[in-house]
Specification:
The protein is of the alpha+beta class. The protein is built from ten helices and 13 strands. The protein is 35% helix and 24% strand. The structure holds adenosine-5'-diphosphate and magnesium ion.
Length: 346
């Protein structure tokens, strides 16, 4: 007798799994404006305001390692990655709840340090730490942070708003965080000599990303027509793929336009790495990717100059949803079928 095929998580992949869950969660609440599939869920809270909610878990050995990151720094990162999802919706943060999974024998001093980092960042971004849950974890430490925020009723951003002809923009520089992680995971003595400045910058970008809330809020307050927005957590091609799928469009990127930091350039040169792989596939940059009509470019450039945040034009939205191409000196780049971005189960 042939055994019935039993798919596992590695068959489905993270996004196959989320799709499956989404189908099982349909049709509950009319107040839900945006459900599973965007950076935050959005629901109607009052006549003038929407509320948004997002959650992210960080697991020891998967997302962080106490040998390379202090608990205090981890607390700051946990808030940052959730704030980044709020930024992607054009939302302002309001409150946070935090669930902790603790192995017995976990040093209390580390929990103090975690909350030191977390509450410093909460004060900085005016987030109230309002509750949570504490449970024992048989193996390893984990935290799951949930953030609630607000948007105006008629002014917030989603993944599904990209339209053909729009310009694709990205904030900051890409690939730094993935390169920083590579530095952190290379045993001491095994990596070529690196200027301390390069090492500090790249690892800092991985350990302590800065959420782009100020840019997002500046855009919310402007009259610039933002098509779609997403924060880059899984890698440029993968996250742009999410925008394209949600919007029913395609995209063309120009490789030479993708913003690179000097340390990333230096590090990839010294280590003989193909920088393009890190720019297109490297995760956890927590920069914003968004689209605007071409007519709003001037306005956007003025806003960028005022806000002091680097934002770069990297491509165009195309009508054909089957196309996601990267041009290098005018020629399409050959790519592996998957963009090389991050999937928890593959
Ligand atoms: P992000 O990287 O922006 O946090 P994810 O890729 O983690 O987004 O998730 C994509 C979408 O799937 C989000 O809308 C998220 O709320 C939803 N999602 C992820 N995991 C689950 C789950 N276990 N159950 C329900 N929805 C989920
Ligand atoms: Mg996100």
């Amino acid at each position: 007798v042939r055994k019935k095929f039993q798919p596992t998580l590695s068959h489905l992949g993270e996004f196959g799994l989320i799709d499956r869950i989404r189908k099982r969660c349909r049709g509950v609440d009319a107040k839900l404006i945006e459900g599973i599939g965007d950076d935050c869920a959005v629901y109607s809270a009052s006549k003038n305001r929407n509320q948004v909610i997002t959650t992210d878990a960080l697991v020891e050995g998967v997302h962080f390692d106490f040998r390379t990151q202090s608990a205090e720094s981890l607390g700051r990162k946990a808030l940052a990655v959730n704030l980044s999802d709020l930024a992607a919706m054009g939302a302002e943060p309001r409150l946070a709840v935090l669930a902790l999974g603790l192995p017995s024998g976990f040093p209390v001093e580390r929990i103090d340090a975690l909350y030191r980092g977390l509450s410093a960042r909460c004060r900085q971004y005016r987030v109230a730490l309002a509750g949570g849950d504490t449970v024992r974890s048989p193996r390893g430490f984990w935290i799951a942070l949930t953030l609630v925020g607000e948007t105006r009723k008629n002014r917030w951003f989603r993944r599904s708003g990209a339209r053909p002809g729009q310009v694709i923009w990205v904030s900051g520089t890409l690939g730094d965080s993935a390169l920083g992680l590579r530095i952190l995971s290379t045993p001491a003595g095994k990596s070529p000599d690196l200027p301390e400045r390069v090492r500090r910058y790249l690892t800092g970008r991985h350990l302590e990303p800065e959420p782009r809330l100020a840019l997002s809020q500046a855009l919310v307050r402007s009259t610039i027509r933002v098509g779609a927005m997403i924060d880059l957590s899984d890698g440029l091609l993968q996250d742009l793929g999410h925008v394209c799928r949600a919007s029913g469009v395609g995209a063309r990127l120009q490789l030479e336009r993708i913003p690179v930091s000097q340390p990333a350039e230096k590090f990839s040169l010294v280590n003989n790495l193909r920088l393009q792989d890190w720019l297109l596939g490297g995760g956890e940059d927590y920069e914003l990717l968004f689209t605007t009509p071409r007519e709003d470019v001037k306005k956007l450039k003025r806003l960028i100059a005022r806000a002091g945040v680097p934002v770069t034009e990297i491509g165009t939205v195309l009508p054909d949803p089957k196309v996601l191409e990267v041009l290098h000196r005018g020629r399409p780049l050959r790519q592996r079928k998957s963009g090389g971005g991050f999937d928890h189960f593959r």
